[in-house]
Write a structure and sequence with these properties.
The protein has four domains: 96 residues, Helix Hairpins (Orthogonal Bundle); 89 residues, HSP40/DNAj peptide-binding domain, CATH 2.60.260; 72 residues, Urease metallochaperone UreE, N-terminal domain (HSP40/DNAj peptide-binding domain, Sandwich); 32 residues, no CATH class. Helix content is 24%, strand content 26%. It contains nine helices and 15 strands. A four-stranded mixed sheet has the order 10-11-15-14. A hairpin with a 2-residue loop joins β4 and β5. About 11% of the residues have low confidence.
Length: 379
């Protein structure tokens, strides 16, 4: 399906509630199955615009959708993996049934409901600072996160040792509670996790004293992170199942590692290329030279051709940053900076004046007398 809900409804992203309602009413009227009997495409389109409207009309869901897209509708608000509609009761077909039940004539049966069982733990986040070379070539680092881990005392069940959980009295083990309300098209059935058992379908009469029935406790957890070559500041690594443990034996969430790379004194980075200023003297630029340069890969000899001008670019192919997806490396780009001497000995000045005279170049006369002494005093 098209996951751009605004596009589905034909409204701009900043549409007001009235604009949303007006657009939805028109589309629902045109696409309603009663007006298009036997038209599977119209029926599917009707389901999609209904879903889009139900998400965008809810301020909290709309905020999450605007920030993260359909991945933000998983219920975590950070995206990443799983069915993006899981927070609404399953895939698109289940979602439609959860919103409209059988009142609109679709879905068949009484609905499957929300699968009961352990609830997934929340995602965790941590920051990791890398040295420049670590980011370029990749590295393994340890990170420590304070998060929820399984309780050893009750073995993550939440029940006091020697006792067991019982069926939740509020939801009768279903793990969800439902509410019926009227919509534009009739009755709408919405469901949400049972607040008493948090969707597990079970309650604990004698909770574990260490975790207070949660099946998890807060603790520090240290783990190794493999950082691929070529990463840069702002990249976020997602480590599946390394987040907080779910309550009462639920699966863990994911761990998001936010990378920050320290700058390097010699090299700057532009995408996959490394940039370095290669300083040469006027004599080296004019006559040419072979200079030694310490790169990230080791020692390299760089040829400076005679007559090199300031700003010339020399590329060392394949000595830049590796592609984070493994598609080769960038280049080491050397930008030549010709350094003009700022102070000259008497011999240097004499030789330069002889060179200028031989080339017919006009230069200022040498300083002498009082003016020269005044200038020297301010140097």
């Amino acid at each position: 399906m098209d996951t751009d809900f605004y596009k589905l409804l034909g409204v701009p992203r900043g549409a007001t509630d009235d604009e949303l309602k007006k657009a939805y009413r028109k589309l629902a009227h045109d696409l309603h199955p009663d007006k298009n009997p036997g038209d599977a495409e119209a029926e599917e389109r009707f389901k999609q615009v209904s879903l889009a409207y139900e998400v965008l009309r809810d301020p909290e869901r709309r905020k999450r959708y605007d920030a993260y897209g359909v991945e933000g509708l998983r219920g975590t608000g950070t995206g990443g993996g799983g069915d993006p509609f899981a927070g609404f009761g399953g895939g698109l077909g289940d979602l439609f049934e959860a919103f409209f039940g059988n009142a609109a004539g679709f879905g068949g049966g009484g609905g499957r409901g929300r699968p009961r069982g352990p609830v997934r733990g929340p995602d965790a986040e941590v920051s990791l600072t890398l040295e420049f070379t670590e980011a370029v070539f990749g590295v393994e680092k340890e990170v420590t996160v304070r998060t929820a881990v399984a309780c050893d005392t009750c073995e993550a069940t939440g029940a006091k040792p020697g006792t067991t959980a019982t069926t939740c009295a509020q939801c009768a083990g279903a793990g969800e509670v439902r509410q019926v309300r009227q919509s534009l098209l009739g009755q709408m059935v919405t469901s949400r996790p049972c607040p008493r058992c948090n969707g597990s379908g079970e309650s604990i009469a004698s909770p574990c004293e260490d975790c207070r029935g949660e099946g998890r406790v807060a603790d520090h957890r240290t783990m190794r992170v493999t950082v691929p070559a070529g990463v840069d500041s702002g990249i976020v690594l997602r480590l599946n199942d390394r987040g907080a443990a779910g309550p009462r034996g639920g699966p863990p969430g994911d761990l998001y590692v936010h990378l920050e790379v320290r700058p390097d004194a010699r090299f700057a980075r532009e995408g996959k290329d490394l940039i370095h200023e290669l300083h040469v003297s006027t004599a080296q630029a004019a006559l040419g030279a072979h200079l030694g340069l310490t790169t990230l890969d080791g020692e390299e000899e760089v040829a400076v051709p005679p007559g090199t001008q300031n700003g010339r670019v020399v590329r060392l192919r394949g000595q830049g940053v590796p592609d984070v997806n493994g598609r080769g490396r960038g280049d080491l780009v050397l930008k030549v900076v010709v350094d003009t001497p700022t102070s000259l000995s008497a011999t240097d000045e004499r030789l330069l004046r002889e060179l200028a005279a031989a080339r017919g170049e006009e230069v200022d006369p040498p300083d002498s007398g009082l003016l020269s002494k005044i200038r020297s005093a301010f140097k």
